[in-house]
Amino acid sequence: MKLSTFIIRNMDCPTEEALIRKRLGAVQGIGDLAFNLMDRRLTVAHTLDDEQPIHDALREIGMKAVPAPQAQPDACSNCETDTPMVSRKIWVMMAVSGVAALAAEILAWTGTAENSPAVIALALFSIATGGFSTLKKGWIALKTFTLNMNFLMSVAMIGAIIIGEWPEAAVVIFLFALAELIETLSLERAKNAIRGLMAMTPETTTVRLDSGEWREVAAADVQVGQTARVKPGERIPLDGVVTAGGSSVNQAPITGESIPVMKAAGDPVFAGTLNERGMLEFRVTANKGNTALARIIRSVQEAQGQRAPTQRFVDQFARYYTPAVVVFAVLVAVVPPFLFGAAFEPWFYKALVMLVIACPCALVISTPVTVVSGLAAAARQGILVKGGVHLENGRLIKVVAMDKTGTLTHGKPVVTDVIPLVEWPTDTLLQLAASVDAHSEHPIATAITSAWQTPAGVNATERSLLPVISFESLTGRGAKAVIDGQLYYVGNHRQMEELGICGPHVETVLNRLEEQGKTAVVLSTVSNALCVIGVADTVRGHSAEAIRQLHAHGVVSVMLTGDNQTTANAIAAQVGIDDARGNLLPEDKLAVIDDLIRRYGKVGMVGDGINDAPALAKASIGFAMGVAGTDTAIETADVALMDDDLRKLPHFIQLSRDTSRVLRQNITLAIGIKAMFFVLALAGKATLWMAVFADMGASLVVVFNGMRLLQVTGHTKK
């Protein structure tokens, strides 16, 4: 199967979707159709030799399709729609139509007969200038036997003319056309929330050529590995790693972090972020189409095309609702006059009002606008949601399981304690231990060496290591080396016992640190223990707050780790975890997720997106942490938290609840307004133009109510 993607500018409502499905469904060689109404995109799976039959079929139903541009995802991918959706010519014609319709109504109100030549001429002029498009679409719907709102409105207008209501026929068709224009503009505003991300990356960047010369080139032409430069106040055009310079960078478009982050050599930078103060040079690590921002935009755009559960329900409801209302309207027009001898014209008019009320656009459009607004609000906060189904289901999560390393903790061991056992300066002891461990690649050794060389507030060049000879790594125990003619050991509990120097005082210190979930090592000579060094994977500063927020939402927290149970319990107590499970292999984590699903129902799993892949896949919703630069995590997770801030998890749950609440509000409003006008129509209190106003009002209310989610803001780190 081939895939062809088109942009159809006049496709923004399920009315057009149904018409297209029906027409293309009759073309041999065409398979699945995928619609993104918010983006006006149609993707066709087909076996055709070329796309001409698709264009011909769409043209028959008044749809002009253009091939979707193969632009970079972080540029405007649908620039065909970036031109004004409503031209000046259309606004002028609508104004003329409105004036003519109003003039016809005024003449009728002042005593002129509604079937007089002047009133008829004004009405026809109004219909021709403002309602021609609707009538054309209505005719297409009639030819294709498609029951849509254009057909219903055309029937209502023609019916009003048949019974001599010329002014009302003109007003109805004008108001409907105006409602469509306003709805189009409203939907454009919702879509602009995503398009705003697209505009964040510069089209050009300054790169260093092989000659050493700096030159401004198109960002799309920059290759991975080239060195780029960005000045203060400029947006970073591509992902990369800083090679020279230092500056503060506002990363809000990627991570939702409102406070600028300091960048220096070795730090990553992302396309679309703002360089605030200093000059930065960076090595490009992703081309224009594969930046973190491009992946965010691509994922959100794909998510728009997925129907959330509520949307599927509404679409199914509308499929039966409209025909049922039409049948009811026909019965209202026919039964009283022919069975009970009632006057034909009043009941026929009531039926026309019901046909207008039958338009389901307000009901159907309520869900995609709300879901897209929720997805956009999440993206602004650095939460990448892979579809409306996850956004809706997030509110149902009862328990969250989370990995320890890299999620609750930094995932990098650091020295937490240096406890002297002799009357030597602490710095001297740490320098000796670091000098021995500098020749080891063990993570614990690396942590001890870094603690000496790069402590807070001290330059690395000022903290030199001592010369070492006769270094030897002791597998499973530690290391030893000679410094200034003295043999020193840096080893674990077992090593000290083998040396015979693990006395009661040393044991007490070791046990105390181990009970705190720390790894304890000892610096010693052959005969004396000199100090005990505690090393631990430290808890992230925001982890405890995130757990408190989850508890406030009524969500149970469970920690899953491969570390021993003592360490697991210590970390759990520190951050407030409800249930800590230690000594777990990947298959054990999977079994725990199975058990939690049986006990609680909806379960969230937070991990790194790679090592925890089985558990992430098994969970109801999988969350990947800190994945701004990781393709794999974004692809495997249901929700990606674009930085290392676990507080985004409770924020996502709250956003899901807000989205669900707005969806319920919109459905209630749409159906409630329709039901009210049904009653008014049967009572003879509703007119055609009132019904159009109600339909337009309902559509605008649900659109703007859904867009309220765009105002949702996340937390701000302190």
Helices and strands in order:
Elements lengths: L1 E7 L5 H11 L5 E7 L4 E6 L5 H9 L4 E3 L20 H22 L7 H14 L1 H12 L5 H14 L3 H33 L5 E5 L5 E5 L8 E4 L9 E6 L1 E4 L1 H4 L5 E3 L4 E2 L4 E2 L4 E5 L7 H13 L4 H32 L3 H14 L3 H20 L2 E3 L2 H6 L5 E5 H5 E12 L5 H12 L5 H11 L15 E6 L3 E6 L2 E6 L1 H7 L4 H12 L3 E6 L4 E11 L3 H10 L3 E5 L4 H11 L3 E3 L4 H15 L2 E5 L5 H6 L2 E5 L5 H6 L2 E3 L6 H35 L5 H20 L11
Parallel strand pairs: 15-22, 15-24, 22-23, 24-25, 25-26
Antiparallel strand pairs: 1-3, 1-4, 2-3, 5-6, 5-7, 7-13, 8-11, 8-13, 9-10, 9-12, 14-26, 16-21, 17-18, 18-19, 19-20, 20-21
Helix pairs in contact: 3-4, 3-7, 4-7, 5-6, 6-7, 6-11, 7-12, 7-25, 9-12, 10-11, 10-12, 11-24, 11-25, 12-24, 12-25, 15-16, 24-25
Model description:
The chain contains 25 helices and 26 strands. Among the domains are: 2-68, Alpha-Beta Plaits; 204-290, Calcium-transporting ATPase, cytoplasmic transduction domain A (Distorted Sandwich); 373-408 and 541-651, HAD superfamily/HAD-like (Rossmann fold, 3-Layer(aba) Sandwich), CATH 3.40.50.1000; 409-539, Calcium-transporting ATPase, cytoplasmic domain N (3-Layer(aba) Sandwich). α10 (309-340) packs antiparallel against α11, α12 packs parallel to α25 and α24 (648-682) runs antiparallel to α25. The strands form 5 sheets. The protein has a 7-stranded mixed sheet, sandwiched between helices. The chain has a 6-stranded antiparallel sheet with strand order 6-5-7-13-8-11, with no helix packed on it. With 718 residues, the protein is of the alpha+beta class.
